[in-house]
Amino acid sequence: ICWSVTGGWHRPRVQPYGPIQLDPAAAVLHYGQEIFEGLKAYRHADGSIHSFRPEANGARLQRSARRLALPELPVEYFIESLKQMIAVDGAWVPSAPETSLYLRPFMFAKEAFLGVRPAHKVAYYLIASPAGAYFHGGIAPVSIWLSTNYARAGKGGTGAAKTGGNYASSLLPQSEAAEKGCQQVLFLRDGEYVEELGGMNVVLVYKDGTLVTPESDSILEGITRDSVLRLAEDRGHTVERRRVTIDEWREGAASGDIVESFACGTAAVITPIGQIVAEDFTIGSPDAEAGELTMSLRQELTDIQYGRLDDRHGWMLRLDA
Ligand code: PMP
């Protein structure tokens, strides 16, 4: 599906999937003026199709647009694009357990010029792809490489926006992680404060049941994280959004104060962290077991998403009606 904009949202149309034409001088190819979102459509047992908090993705796309000097797509149009996609391609939403249709809305600058300035002509597209479990090997705890040579974003940068440049800067550290035998990379800010993984937020669980997650203006505010923390609060857990140093994590894990940690995001849902591997130390162990709270929050969240549990927060939006 494609919505294109030149001075006003117009001409939305569904087109067959295929290559798109771009002028070689299109601003996105040179200055990276683009933003995107990621969410899923879930098939419930009765066959109906639902998405999870799509208004939050629409609002985040608007925040990303402001940071990248792109026009803000009204949230109603964003939701409408999801519904039109499902109207045409709903059959692609799989029904096997733990599967979904991953939806990738994105907007980019297509105006052709070479000076450095925000473009005025942009395009909005939505593509989709059926998705299974994110990590190979199911939901076994993952090993994470601590990147100390590279930052993903910094103060005043684009870290809080969902824009390709942040991912561009994480590609090399991600391949470094793979060389070290890890599936993911963890970024710090100022060489000290825990930020996030390449595509997921981080949550630590303390012995007293408190959940702690990094507060930072240079990470992506995950919708999964926000939701999981709400579920934990519903159960009576204390949630702290504050700065966390890697030393706090290291010492807390060594002393037994930090008993679980997990990563969360739309693609991976909730994934237990087995170990953090740094140049000169490790936290946890490769054969760590998945934490009990981690797995039960994962179960509760996916039960809501797949319609197996009452949607008490009003998070689900039906897309096929
Ligand atoms: N951080 C980064 C860098 C991400 O790419 C993602 C995935 N969108 C997240 C966090 C988690 O965000 P969400 O829960 O909204 O998918």
TrEMBL record:
Pathway: Amino-acid biosynthesis; L-isoleucine biosynthesis; L-isoleucine from 2-oxobutanoate: step 4/4; Amino-acid biosynthesis; L-leucine biosynthesis; L-leucine from 3-methyl-2-oxobutanoate: step 4/4; Amino-acid biosynthesis; L-valine biosynthesis; L-valine from pyruvate: step 4/4. Keywords: Amino-acid biosynthesis, Aminotransferase, Branched-chain amino acid biosynthesis, Pyridoxal phosphate, Transferase. Its EC number is 2.6.1.42. Gene3D superfamilies: 3.30.470.10, D-amino Acid Aminotransferase, subunit A, domain 2. GO terms for biological process: amino acid biosynthetic process; branched-chain amino acid biosynthetic process. One of its GO terms (molecular function) is branched-chain-amino-acid transaminase activity. Its cofactor is pyridoxal 5'-phosphate. CDD domains: BCAT_beta_family. PANTHER family: BRANCHED-CHAIN-AMINO-ACID AMINOTRANSFERASE (PTHR11825:SF44), SUBGROUP IIII AMINOTRANSFERASE (PTHR11825). Belongs to the class-IV pyridoxal-phosphate-dependent aminotransferase family. This is branched-chain-amino-acid transaminase. It comes from Agromyces rhizosphaerae. The lineage of its organism: Bacteria, Bacillati, Actinomycetota, Actinomycetes, Micrococcales.
